[in-house]
Amino acid sequence: PARLQVDPESIPDDDKPPQTGSVFNVWYLKWSGGDSSSNPYTKLNFRVNIKKDSGYTKAKHSNYICLFFARGCCYLGKNCPYLHRLPTSEDYFIPTQDCFGRDKTSEYKDDMSGVGSFKKINKTLYIGGLTKTNNSNIQNILTKHFEEFGNIEKIKILFNKNCAFITYKLEYQAQFAKEAMQNQSIVGDDILNIKWANEDPDPNSQKQKQNALEDEALNTVKKLLNDKSKDNKVTVQEVESEGEEE
């Protein structure tokens, strides 16, 4: 069964910021209903551990992933109505929603944050907040922390801008990683700021992306045809069986 990732009663008063609203939200360690003066780049006290936190829940009629599980702070455990696991290639999500069941918008936000756009498949994340990109092991460090959430196709580091771009094999993996690693630290006191990446202007990258989309579409068609073929096979077998009985 899925374990409890956090106990709301275990959060000490010292970890709660000054009350500026009416209700304390354990997910964000801040008060809601007041002003929004809190620092958006405060390191979170929680982080998901896929091996330890994954498990079955009460999600019998839902294929959506628990958003708070991804953030490492779901206190419902096995009683959660959403899935406590990584999204896989076998999952199907409505194109206008992400793997957590949140609605996408027509256009991206100006700062490329948020759920994303339903007009395009985006598997690449912008990783900001890296002040130590001169670290010789930064490539390995990024790989170590982000490969936990899915298959990484490419990591591009811009050393002069202290940021990186990580491309996953599946968009759902990128969606999960974005929530899991936002406001986390991987080097020293750095606090990650993760957003959706803009279109890469490099012609080679665009061609690779186009090829990947075509392969993904072809695989989807093959899967649908295979499912239909299985159904037809069962139908033929049933007909032959009825003929033998006569």
Automatic annotation (TrEMBL):
Instruction: Say if the entry is tagged with keyword Membrane.
Output: no
Instruction: Give the signal peptide as a residue range, or say none if absent.
Output: none
Q: Which UniProt keywords apply?
A: Cell cycle, Metal-binding, mRNA processing, mRNA splicing, Nucleus, RNA-binding, Spliceosome, Zinc, Zinc-finger
* Stated role: Involved in the first step of pre-mRNA splicing. Required for cell growth and cell cycle control. Plays a role in the levels of the U1, U4, U5 and U6 snRNAs and the maintenance of the U4/U6 snRNA complex. May provide the link between the 'nineteen complex' NTC spliceosome protein complex and the spliceosome through the U6 snRNA. Associates predominantly with U6 snRNAs in assembled active spliceosomes. Binds directly to the internal stem-loop (ISL) domain of the U6 snRNA and to the pre-mRNA intron near the 5' splice site during the activation and catalytic phases of the spliceosome cycle.
Family from the record: Belongs to the RRM CWC2 family.
Q: Which organism is it from?
A: Hyphopichia burtonii NRRL Y-1933
The organism's superkingdom is given as: Eukaryota
- Cite the record's note on assembly: Associated with the spliceosome.
Asked if the record carries the keyword Zinc, the reply is: yes
This chain belongs to the protein called Pre-mRNA-splicing factor CWC2
Query: Residue ranges of the RRM domain?
Result: 123-199
Where are zinc fingers of the kind C3H1-type found along the chain?
Answer: 65-87
Record CDD domains: RRM_cwf2
SUPFAM superfamilies in the cross-refs? CCCH zinc finger, RNA-binding domain, RBD
Domain named C3H1-type is located at: 65-87
User: GO MF annotations for this entry?
Assistant: pre-mRNA binding; U6 snRNA binding; zinc ion binding
